[in-house]
Amino acid sequence: MTTAVSIPRTGGSGGHAAVAARGRRIVKSYGSGETRVTALDQVDVDIARGRFTAIMGPSGSGKSTLMHCLAGLDTVTSGQIWIDETEITGLKDKKLTRLRRDRIGFIFQAFNLLPTLNAIENITLPMDIAGRKPDRAWLDRVVETVGLAGRLKHRPNQLSGGQQQRVAVARALAARPEIIFGDEPTGNLDSRAGAEVLGFLRRSVDELGQTIVMVTHDAVAASYADRVLYLADGRIVDEMHQPTAEMVFERMKHFDARGRVS
């Protein structure tokens, strides 16, 4: 479990924030007939720009499926999803691939770093592949934000797990994506390294204006967010603003072993 830290939140605004991504009547089903399983059931969701949103719920609640659909990594059975004003449902594969590359960042449990490249080469790799030159001032700011200035020439095997995940965070931030999606980004880290990475994600929202959506099962990790969405049975059943670990933990106790709300 991640170590609890009190994090001041200065990102976002007191009023209605602009929407970075939204979904309407999202349905995601697998199989057909009697074997049909509905992972997402008529979900409506707005993701505020410049804010940190956590998605929580029991195993099988649909939280990772929702994130994958919002990020264009999975298709929906029905419904519509937009990144800013671009509807991604129905986009051709080539255009969707370009949108994910240019406008979306990803952070996963697995660091997905290339062992033959050093930290800075891993950070700029997506832009190198796309033939884009990094904005040097922005790149320097990202590196400073995640605290990697002294480790840029080190390869992954010369870095700790927490440092490797910080490289992955910096890689996601470096291209200045409109939104970053993280699927259990601290799941493979010990509590200290996890707290470091979550702190850097929080700072990227507060200091860099980044939009982050993170799936997590950890109440402490969720407490770093501005808003927590709770899923059960493929639906959003509740949300919480300015959460604390204690508030999140108490809310999660109302889900039974099958993921239903008590």
What does this structure look like?
Keywords: ATP-binding, Nucleotide-binding, Transport. This is ABC transporter ATP-binding protein. Pfam families: ABC_tran. One of its GO terms (molecular function) is ATP binding. InterPro entries: AAA+_ATPase, ABC_transporter-like_ATP-bd, ABC_transporter-like_CS, ABC_transpr_LolD-like, MacB-like_ATP-bd, P-loop_NTPase. With 262 residues, this protein is of the alpha/beta class. It has a single domain, classed as Rossmann fold (3-Layer(aba) Sandwich), CATH 3.40.50. The strands form two sheets. It has a six-stranded mixed β-sheet with strand order 6-7-8-3-9-10, with helices on both faces. It has a four-stranded antiparallel β-sheet with strand order 2-1-4-5, with helices on one face. Helix 4 runs antiparallel to helix 5. It is globular, with a radius of gyration of 18 Å. The N terminus is likely disordered.
**What proportion strand?**
15-25%
Number of helices: 8
Corresponding CATH architecture: 3-Layer(aba) Sandwich
If strands are numbered along the chain, what order do they take across the biggest sheet?
A: 6-7-8-3-9-10
What is the radius of gyration computed over CA atoms, rounded to a whole number of angstroms? 18 Å
Total tally of structural domains:
1
Summing up helix and strand content along with how strands pair, one would put the structural category as: alpha/beta
CATH superfamily: P-loop containing nucleotide triphosphate hydrolases
Give a count of the beta strands, DSSP E runs of length 2 or more: 10
| Unreliably modeled segments | 1-16
- CATH top-level class: Alpha Beta
Give average pLDDT, whole number. Answer: 87
The major pleated sheet works out as: 6 strands, mixed
Q: What is the chain-wise order of helices and strands?
A: EEEHEEHEHHHEHEHEEH
Fraction of helical residues = 25-40%
The dominant shape is globular
Distance between the termini: 25 Å
Oligomer: single chain
CATH T-level topology: Rossmann fold
Keywords: ATP-binding, Nucleotide-binding, Transport
Pfam families: ABC_tran (PF00005)
GO molecular function: ATP binding
Protein name: ABC transporter ATP-binding protein
